[in-house]
What does this fold into?
Amino acid sequence: MLGVPSATLDKHGAVSAETAQAMAQGALAHSNADLAVAITGIAGPGGGTPAKPVGLVHFAAAARDGRHVHRAKKFGKIGRRKVRLKSVAEALAMLELLASGAHV
It folds into this structure.
């Protein structure tokens, strides 16, 4: 649905900056929205690896005018619910930044 290239997933994995950015761009390409945000991460309690630990979350937000922003957060093992809540807050803040017209 978002059009993330399989090559991106194969090379970088589902939890990566590249995948988050492709998700946000795909959301714009497949909708009439002017802004999009994407979140991919490992909320836990399991599923982490040394390279991608529990609590790692990648965010990407994109605007139809070409502006985009990526952030990675390492929330740590704070529990699935808290990782998800903090992720929603971060994603909304990124959308607010783009909606304000900021050049990022």
The chain has a mean pLDDT of 96. The longest helix spans residues 80-99. Helices lie at 6-12, 17-29, 80-99. The first strand starts at residue 35 and ends at 41.
